Amino acid sequence: xxxxxxHPEMAAANGDDEPATGVFHTISSTDLVTQIARQITEAIVSxxxxxxxxxxxxxxxxxxxxxRAPVREAARLLESQGLVVSSPRRGFFVRTLExxxxxxxxxxxIGLEVHAALLAVDRITEHEIDRLQRQIEKMYALADxxxxxxxxxxxFTFHRLLCAASGNRRLLKVYDELATEMRCGIALIGRLFxxxxxxxxTHEPVLDALRERDADKLAAAVRFHIVExxxxxxxxxxxxxxxxxx
Amino acid sequence: xxxxxxHPEMAAANGDDEPATGVFHTISSTDLVTQIARQITEAIVSxxxxxxxxxxxxxxxxxxxxxRAPVREAARLLESQGLVVSSPRRGFFVRTLExxxxxxxxxxxIGLEVHAALLAVDRITEHEIDRLQRQIEKMYALADxxxxxxxxxxxFTFHRLLCAASGNRRLLKVYDELATEMRCGIALIGRLFxxxxxxxxTHEPVLDALRERDADKLAAAVRFHIVExxxxxxxxxxxxxxxxxx
DNA sequence: GCAGTGTCAATTGTCGACAATTTGCAAAAA
DNA sequence: TTTTTGCAAATTGTCGACAATTGACACTGC
Lengths: 246, 246
Prior knowledge:
The structure is a homodimer. Chain A is mainly α. Chain A contains ten helices and three strands, in the order αβααββααααααα. In chain A, α1 packs across α3, α4 runs antiparallel to α7 and α4 (99-123) runs antiparallel to α10. Chain A is globular, with a radius of gyration of 21 Å. Chain A binds a DNA duplex through α3.
């Protein structure tokens, strides 16, 4: 393992070498692994695959009509995302989200998002603020008629926009990882918030503080907002845990 | 994809069902994937495999005396850790750490470790404080005679202990991810700190503030310490970038 | 009945082979 | 000379098969 230095760079994740027409979409890559991973993820998030249930490679490969190889890779991908866990020689299992996990995730989110907000307060553009405003409006709209899943997705989007506004890509990546993990649990939570309208409302103080570029107020608002969400989720979760199995 | 709910739980990561003799060690599983991943990691961190260089499955499998399958899995594992990147149909390449990446990582570390420290200030035990003290002493000892790599490893350990003292496992996991990524770059940095003694010294204020349980002082100390490290690393890194290739 | 042992089906870990795609190079066309 | 086209080698994506291990069940001896 010595001499090696082939490809100059990788041109990285920018598909910007396109003096092309700009007319065509990149054809939907057959990419088995991605498709399989997406389907398994969907099954987990929707609750069709319950936490703790086993994933056998052979069965999955038969369902997808492929060999075991791409299924294995997809499972490993999901493992790195925290959606499934694996045990040597025993296979893959859908991740179970313990109360302790949820506590840790929310406690971490406080530090992460407060930091993101404080970075954003100096960097955020008017355009990004408008985007956050529209996001809250979307949540209000869904509060009356949308499904719970949709509401949660839009909530995730709001917080993701906030993290993105920090300008720190690595931070955003951590948020995405946490969001993916949390998606494991949302299928369990039948009704999350007593009032979806209230959920939308609680985002307003964050946006206000951003508009005013008031760092202290912003930090407090973000912290308060996440703690409130944490309280509801933890309570609801322990309530579900109390009643064992359907 | 419907009925499935096999294994009850997983008994998770506790190997505490041992009414055994307590005499034997668990035999080191041959586990090819882990061994391969470890060797590749070692090669990357030590600098034998330079950033941007290509990893071909066939060549690696020949070197390790295995088939391509375990090599693939190991590479995917390393990809999830951020040590390598992959491009469809093109294969794996050793991750290149851009100045922007380093900036993001350190900026994130500030938020992460300040948060960890503030959580730890209420939770940390005397025993853990002693452990941190010994860690600093170890750094002093290595400052005079140790290799640069050793010093950096001990520095990582200190910060890891701090994150662990937060009591938040998910936070610790994020730190580990960041540490792994940073290891990509340390091979490039020939001499990191002008004075290794200085490196050890700068940890003292953090420990002092922890001892006094002074939250404000602690936050400031952690922030200052990381910013100082960031300054040195970024400067050194851009200096290296200026001079293209050996 | 119970602790321990042997056996067997199910499943994962690993392998070698083939198909599909990319890349580099050379030849042909402008 | 420069650009395009065509080909060939190298490499990844996928597959089916076999070996190794696990977990469950039945069996034995007490």
